[in-house]
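Quiz preparation item.
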């Protein structure tokens, strides 16, 4: 399904003159090269595009000014990357993305003649601050994990957990892009209207069932014209890259408000993204087959293709950690709550794009998709506390003796993700981190 093929940038034997990029387990080897918007901490300089290499950020504005690349085409692409948002670069399309990736790969490899110039364009990650990589115009959250959908459905409809449409189309709702924030920013516990089963009237107050959701974020590149659908096998041309995504959920607010029109204030108070956008091309070695159980309905023609079956899925490993306030005070490491894989997704990203646009909806550069909570089939693969605690009935016991049914003030949730297999370089996503602050 991938638009890209394996090429010299994926060679697992490549190393970089940035030594930290060659360390085992590093998220950002020269085979990755994800993008972000950053600036040096405690400055008033404009944000600009950056590329991760080891524990350093390559400042793309500084690269442009250095004239290390003297051809006009590369300079024009770098000019878009040097801007305070990556929207224009995202809109340039796969040829521009791939061209710059190749140029940067060659310049950052061991033995490159560009080392002496580009060393002055590096900023240590520890000295960088990040912002959203682009202006997110529209945000759609999908519901693509059948394991998550079944687990949640059982809590409310034990005899009929999946609604009839689930296996026929990628379910989604339009979310609130204004409250998507970058990793490291606090999440304020929301207030809202809730109603307990034994109450006659609802009350207004702080959320008592605050939860995280382990998701993958998808950034859209070039859009489509209003009224023109994107064909399934052309969908990858419209996907710039991927990040980690925590779509925080106020389960008690959500439960009272969501019938009949779906999520609203229980979702719109906060979402957290990791700073780095891992490009679609970097993930080529981790493309894998997508399958549909023969006993399930098979996709309609616009959601079905041989290419999608062959390589529509991505083997992206996902993890969620929790560090309570007492853990932080005692300097206890965060506890792994669960780990899953994006390969479990019932629908592929290409199918999301094709379905989103089948009615003629126009996508635009910088638009954002959430994959929905990515749970697997096992108990240790659940992507939310709602599932881990079975709706709050069975508290999760932490290593230090604390228990959680839902999140408490002071808790820090950490999402991480990476792709790894024999014969390919490890590609990491960094982290999406946020701490819960009391309701205002």
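Solution:
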């Amino acid at each position: 399904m991938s638009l890209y093929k394996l090429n010299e940038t994926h060679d697992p034997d490549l190393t970089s003159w940035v030594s930290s990029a060659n360390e085992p387990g590093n998220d950002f080897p020269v085979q990755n090269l994800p993008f972000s918007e950053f600036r040096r901490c405690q400055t008033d300089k404009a944000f600009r595009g950056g590329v991760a290499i080891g524990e350093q950020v390559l400042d793309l504005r500084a690269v442009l000014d250095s004239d290390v690349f003297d051809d006009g085409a590369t300079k024009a692409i770098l000019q878009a990357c040097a801007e305070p948002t990556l929207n224009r670069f995202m809109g340039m399309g796969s040829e521009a993305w791939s061209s710059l990736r190749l140029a940067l790969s060659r310049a950052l490899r061991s033995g490159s003649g560009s080392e002496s110039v580009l060393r002055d364009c590096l900023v240590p990650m520890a000295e960088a601050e990040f912002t959203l990589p682009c202006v997110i115009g529209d945000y759609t959250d999908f519901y693509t994990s059948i394991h998550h959908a079944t687990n949640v459905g059982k809590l409310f409809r034990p005899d009929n957990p999946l609604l009839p449409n689930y296996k026929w189309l990628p379910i989604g709702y339009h979310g609130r892009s204004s409250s998507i924030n970058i990793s490291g920013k606090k999440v304020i516990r929301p207030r809202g209207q809730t109603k307990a089963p034994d109450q006659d009237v609802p009350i207004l107050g702080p959320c008592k069932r605050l939860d995280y959701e382990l998701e993958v974020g998808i950034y859209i590149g070039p859009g489509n014209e209003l009224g023109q659908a994107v064909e399934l096998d052309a969908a990858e041309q419209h996907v710039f890259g991927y990040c980690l995504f925590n779509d925080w959920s106020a389960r008690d607010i959500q439960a009272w408000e969501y019938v009949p029109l779906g999520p609203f204030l229980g979702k719109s108070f906060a979402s957290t993204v990791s700073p780095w956008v891992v490009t679609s091309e970097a993930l080529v070695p981790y493309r894998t087959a997508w399958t549909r159980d023969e006993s399930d309905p098979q996709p309609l023609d616009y959601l079905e293709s041989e290419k999608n079956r062959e390589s529509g899925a991505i083997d992206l490993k996902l993890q969620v950690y929790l560090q309570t306030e007492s853990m932080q005070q005692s300097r206890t490491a965060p506890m792994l709550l669960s780990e899953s894989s994006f390969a479990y997704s019932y629908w592929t990203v290409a199918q999301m794009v094709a379905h989103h646009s089948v009615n003629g909806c126009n996508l635009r550069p910088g638009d954002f998709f959430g994959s929905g909570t990515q749970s697997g089939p096992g108990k240790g693969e659940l992507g939310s506390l709602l599932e881990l605690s079975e709706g709050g009935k069975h508290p999760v016991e932490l290593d230090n003796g604390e228990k959680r049914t839902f999140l408490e003030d002071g808790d820090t949730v950490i999402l991480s993700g990476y792709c790894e297999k024999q014969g390919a370089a490890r590609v990491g996503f960094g982290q999406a981190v946020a701490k819960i602050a009391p309701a205002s």
